[in-house]
């Protein structure tokens, strides 16, 4: 009898996996697919699916670019990929350390891929492990089950090229900008650029690295001429100049307003109410993210 | 007359009492305080006081740098004046964030600082009078600690920069009137609970433990910091210079190094 029960349970567990509801995908170019998350804050009410994740298919196999915010979202993503192609997942690339981009990694363990990230990603993951674990447990509870940190097995110091067969992906690592672990992925075949969170469209850019570094990187991305740009958050854009200009304007305004507040000898909390106020209404989640940005970067800017 | 509480400041007990719930969203837990109260102020009555006013965000944007202000309604010249304020964060692993020793040179005490919150917690200011009476105000703050991006820093650079001071006295100064003064000292304020990726253990505590402000060599303000005060400790407070002179600060860290800085006040 007990064996029978275990057998039934085993069937349930086995069958639960392949029937994970596949994530919705958008095909944006030949062999290039994106799933768009929803604009939720990383806080209470977060469900683990807020950023752009996707994949690129070559003749030899697939490269996944960011894996989603939980193991369960990763499973649904894996399910969606298998509806499109039976080719193996060769690489899982993490564009940076943020949890909405990395916690689906474990759903790809069975593919035995190379996990790829910035040279500083492993350390950043380790430093944040405890805090991420605790916050996600609180926000997501059982929805977070199975999620784990999986560090890169292949790292990018400056640049790295991956051959997917009939197309090459060029991965570029950046100095501290959105985070200190940012990576972009350029596809040779379709001239598509994945920026990770180095570019936000619609959603207020959140700063967890170096605002000055990020302004510089935003400018340098503007010198590239991709045919298609997939940002970390928000819709895919064919002309990235406007999106990059919007982001640069927000970041520069914020930096200037904070510098003025410091010069005036204000307390940080008044800048949290007023800095970059001219940008309000132009971005989603502005009130939450902008205040947090001020809180994160103000103390360091006092030492300029 | 002040009772020393320094030996009890490393109290880990309260954290063990925190219920670890997997799904229910935590909120500032009022049940921790009785335990801490007994550890810090055993058998001493504490009266809730409306003359101690606290200001902080209801929900902290960054648990690493939570703006927190204390203002007292009564003057330092008052017979029942608060002479010492303990700032306690109930749910922090190390609850005592700082102790402020006040003098009449501060006028009506008004301070803005930045503290660390590991999780949702009540934050309290407990004021002590010269004759040992205790008064308290408390506010709940929601916070998630540690997520505020730790950029890996070069240890040699961190140590070389530690102790650098910026101090500013708002001008023009009106002698005899409250004058806003800002003090910041560069320091990582390591808690002892941060991971060391090299040893796989924890980085040892490394923090500014004291800052003493004097004006023309007379005491103004004396702060005992603990690691609940944020990285690069920040103080903005009013003081009342009676005549032209020099505001001087001397600070020390827990490794015995000392740092100093001064500002000439001309009016």
Secondary structure layout plus pairing:
The complex is a heterodimer of chains A (304) and B (267).
Chain A: H1 2-16, E1 26-29, E2 32-36, E3 52-57, E4 62-65, H2 71-84, E5 89-93, H3 99-102, E6 114-118, H4 121-140, E7 154-156, E8 159-163, E9 168-173, E10 183-187, E11 192-200, H5 211-221, E12 228-233, H6 240-264, H7 268-274, H8 286-301
Parallel strand pairs in A: 4-5, 5-6, 6-7, 11-12
Antiparallel strand pairs in A: 1-2, 2-3, 3-4, 8-9, 9-10, 10-11
Helix pairs in contact in A: 5-6, 6-7, 7-8
Chain B: H1 13-17, H2 33-40, E1 46-48, E2 52-55, E3 66-75, E4 82-89, E5 96-102, E6 108-115, E7 121-129, E8 134-141, H3 155-161, E9 165-169, E10 179-185, E11 208-215, E12 218-225, E13 234-239, E14 245-253, E15 258-265
Parallel strand pairs in B: 1-8
Antiparallel strand pairs in B: 2-3, 3-6, 4-5, 4-7, 5-12, 6-13, 7-8, 9-10, 10-13, 11-12, 11-14, 14-15
What is the compact description of this entry?
The complex is a heterodimer of chains A (304) and B (267). With 304 residues, chain A is of the alpha/beta class. Chain A has helices at residues 2-16, 71-84, 99-102, 121-140, 211-221, 240-264, 268-274, 286-301; strands spanning 26-29, 32-36, 52-57, 62-65, 89-93, 114-118, 154-156, 159-163, 168-173, 183-187, 192-200, 228-233.
Keywords:
heterodimer; A: 304 residues; alpha/beta; Metallo-beta-lactamase, Chain A; seven-stranded mixed beta sheet; B: mainly beta; Immunoglobulin-like; 3 helices; 7% helix; disordered N terminus
What does this structure look like?
The complex is a heterodimer of chains A (304) and B (267). Chain A is α/β, with parallel strands linked by helices. Chain A has one domain (22-240): Ribonuclease Z/Hydroxyacylglutathione hydrolase-like (Metallo-beta-lactamase, Chain A). Chain A has eight helices and twelve strands. The longest helix of chain A is centred in the C-terminal third of the chain and has 25 residues, at 240-264. In chain A, 50% of the residues are buried. The model of chain A is unreliable at 7-16 (pLDDT under 50). Chain B has one domain (6-265): Immunoglobulins (Immunoglobulin-like), CATH 2.60.40.10. Chain B has helices at 13-17, 33-40, 155-161; strands at 46-48, 52-55, 66-75, 82-89, 96-102, 108-115, 121-129, 134-141, 165-169, 179-185, 208-215, 218-225, 234-239, 245-253, 258-265. The radius of gyration of chain B is 19 Å and the shape is globular. At the A-B interface, helix 4, helix 7 and helix 8 of A face strand 10 of B.
